[in-house]
Amino acid sequence: MSEFFGGFALKDDLNLFANLLDSFEITLNQYDVCGFGYGSKRALDYVLNCNSRINRLILLSPAFFNNKDSAFLDSQIEYFSKNKELYLKHFYENIGFDGLYRFNSDVSVRDLRAFFEFSFNEVDLFRICNRGIKIIVFLGGKDKIIDSTNAMEFFKNFGIVYFIKEANHLLRIEK
């Protein structure tokens, strides 16, 4: 059984990516670790701390905020603290949800802070590569959550990056 780490304020979100992974002929197996959005950070941590065999680390729209300053984080936390429900509504719209979904509204300021404060670093990714683990990253060119172009420039040094020009944060083609 592969390990999957879901995105911020979401539940059971792996099924959102089944068609995408199928279209790239990627079938998750017991030696894969996959993360979406904020779950990419947790997937990375899992791989770094795991002594078991891992073949691939698959990052779906990783929460890449390396280029954001503390003022950005402060504004997000302030907005969330003032009206959590409205913040989450806008968040879900910005990631590309167009219908009903099982959301996790049981998130806190602490979760949001962890979402934005994490920063990917080259040392960790080199460590993963040196263990022979293949890194595959999927990014959407029309992502409203992260700067996908900046993320592509960063991740291309560590593995395969699929940049889907017309896709949103959920890696779906926007109409």
Give an account of the 3D structure.
With 175 residues, this protein is of the alpha/beta class. The chain has one domain (3-164): Alpha/Beta hydrolase fold, catalytic domain (Rossmann fold, 3-Layer(aba) Sandwich). The protein is 39% helix and 14% strand. The protein is built from seven helices and five strands; from the N terminus they run βαβαβααααβαβ. The protein has helices at residues 18-23, 38-49, 70-82, 84-95, 109-117, 122-130, 148-155; strands at 3-5, 32-36, 56-60, 134-140, 160-164. The chain has a five-stranded parallel β-sheet, with helices on one face. Strand 2 (32-36), helix 2 and strand 3 form a beta-alpha-beta unit.
Features:
single chain, 175 residues, alpha/beta, Rossmann fold, five-stranded parallel β-sheet, 7 helices, 39% helix, globular
What would you say about this model in short?
The protein is of the alpha/beta class and 175 residues long. Helices cover 39% and strands 14% of the residues.
Topology overview:
Blueprint: E1 3-5, H1 18-23, E2 32-36, H2 38-49, E3 56-60, H3 70-82, H4 84-95, H5 109-117, H6 122-130, E4 134-140, H7 148-155, E5 160-164
Parallel strand pairs: 1-2, 2-3, 3-4, 4-5
Helix pairs in contact: 3-4, 3-5
CATH topology description: Rossmann fold
Low-confidence stretches: none
Distance between the termini: 34 Å
Query: Could you give the order of the helices and strands?
Result: EHEHEHHHHEHE
Which CATH architecture would you pick? 3-Layer(aba) Sandwich
| β-sheet strand percentage | 5-15%
Give the number of DSSP strands: 5
CATH superfamily: Alpha/Beta hydrolase fold, catalytic domain
Quickly name the level 1 CATH class.
Alpha Beta
Helix content: 25-40%
Principal-axes geometry comes out as: globular
Order of strands across the main sheet: 1-2-3-4-5
Overall SS class: alpha/beta
The total count of helices amounts to 7
Largest sheet: 5 strands, parallel
Whole-number total of structural domains: 1
Please compute the radius of gyration using only Cα atoms. 16 Å
- The mean pLDDT is 88
